[in-house]
Amino acid sequence: MLVNKINVNKWLYNLSRFGVSRKIVEEEKTKLSKKFGKEASHNDAIWSIFNKLIINHSNDAQKLAMIYYEMALFLNEEGKNPFDMLYQSKKMTLVNYRNAGFLKNVEIISAKNVSCAECNKFNGKIFKIEDAIKEMPLPNKKCTTHLHDGKFCFCRCVWAPHVIE
Questions:
Q1: CA–CA dist 32, 136 (Å, integer)
Q2: Which one of 20, 22, 38, 99 has the fewest beta carbons within 10 angstroms of its own beta carbon?
Q3: Is the torsion defined by CA of 11, 62, 23, 49 positive or negative?
């Protein structure tokens, strides 16, 4: 499924949260068209910009988590497997918590009534941050939840700080 005009506008809005304007997307599209020797799609330009955002924010785990999550949503909308981007997003969330320096533990929270049975099994499970980073149980490989009629599963479980000791 290709991103249509309406969805391009949605992605322009999503990218605006990272300081990306319509002009920047159009410039990237023109640049890629010259590189490809044929008309590049908005999808190509948006994906290229996502990759530039990763480079520009390589030292900010919180922003990286957000960028990777947006990339997962984008792939899902294109009918492509979002798992790797979800994995990176969830890993960056853990890295951000670890870098904060005051948390010892994190907890998995499922989206109970919209999560699959496999994901709900993880709800409330507590991990030491370092163990969570090593094991990376999220995104759940056994997840069966589909987001917006996506072709692939899209685990909606999240990491949350566990502050009750």
A1: 35
A2: 38
A3: negative
Q: Measured between alpha carbons, how far is residue 18 from residues 52, 76, 107 in Å? A: 11, 20, 28
d(Cα 81, Cα 92) in Å, to the nearest integer? 19
Structure tokens at 108: 């998995």
Task: With 0.70 as the threshold, say if the pTM is over it.
Answer: yes
Amino acid sitting at position 94: L
If we measure between CA atoms, which residue out of 96, 8, 6, 78 comes closest to residue 46?
A: 8
pLDDT tens, position by position, 83-94: 999 999 999 999
Q: How far apart (Å, rounded) are the C-alpha atoms in residues 130 and 134?
A: 6
Asked if 4 contacts 14 with a C-beta cutoff of 8 angstroms, the reply is no
Question: In which residue are the tokens 């566990």 written?
Answer: 162
